[in-house]
Amino acid sequence: MSRSERQKMQAGDWYCCLDSELGALRHQARLAVHQHNHRPPDPSAPLSPPLATLFAKHGQNCLIEAPFHCAYGLNIHLGDQVYMNAGCTILDSAPVRIGDRTMLGPNVQIYCAQHHKDKDLRAKGLEIAHPVTLGCDVWIGGGAIILPGVSIGDGAIVGAGAVVTKDVEAGVTVVGNPARVLPG
Fold first, then answer.
1. Is 36 in a helix, a strand, or coil?
2. Cα distance between residue 33 and residue 47, in whole Å
3. Is 116 annotated in the active site?
4. Which DSSP state fits 57?
5. How far apart are CA 82 and CA 13, in angstroms?
6. Which of 27, 77, 115, 116 is catalytic?
7. Do 60 and 47 contact (CB within 8 A), yes or no?
8. Partner of 9 for a Cys bridge, out of 15, 29, 59, 127, CB 3.0 to 4.6 A?
């Protein structure tokens, strides 16, 4: 029996991102994101209902500032008291797990998908997705980019503008491009 492109994506195998089912899921996410980004501010509802419905899981007291963008939403898992500042983008082709009390500065980008290196296969929409995990009490500085497959340990800090290409151990601070541990 042949697997769908969505099943391949969820299994972490190569899949075609140009698939109509995946396109429909991205459209559903765009609608929810549009509703979120155009709602009036309401301090009594930190996580907008459209995103709360779209996400796989969300804890209590999460706040996502507008504008926000995600690819699917259905792969996003938030712990309690997660904060995302304005302009964050999560391309969640694989699970993205963000732990309790983790904060993302403005314009943080989290990418799960990696396009094929062969130009002909890339032109056909072939990509693979790897999960991204941010532990509890992580602080991601503004403009940082987290690449596919990266895990960031509890209490770690990612400096503004850093490009995180490898796992980050708990409690350390990384800066730069590519991100490296800040001494001391």
1. helix
2. 12
3. no
4. B
5. 29
6. 115
7. no
8. 15
Q: Along the 184 residues of the chain, how does pLDDT read in single tens digits?
A: 799 999 999 999 999 999 999 999 999 999 999 999 999 877 666 789 999 999 999 999 999 999 999 999 999 999 999 999 999 999 999 999 999 999 999 999 999 999 999 999 999 999 999 999 999 999 999 999 999 999 999 999 999 999 999 999 999 999 999 999 998 7
Per the DSSP assignment, residues forming a β-bridge with 152 are 134, 168
Q: Measure Cα distances from 128 to 3, 116, 168, 181 in Å.
A: 15, 8, 22, 28
Number of C-beta neighbours around residue 59 at 10 A:
16
Please name which of 46, 9, 44, 3 lies closest in space to residue 26, comparing C-alpha atoms: 9
Domain assignments of the chain as residue spans, ordered by start:
5-181
Per CATH, the number for 5-181 is: 2.160.10.10
Q: Please give the Cα distance from 157 to 152 (Å, whole number).
A: 9
State the pLDDT at residue 42. Answer: 72
State how far the Cα of 9 lies from the Cα of 113, in Å rounded to an integer.
9
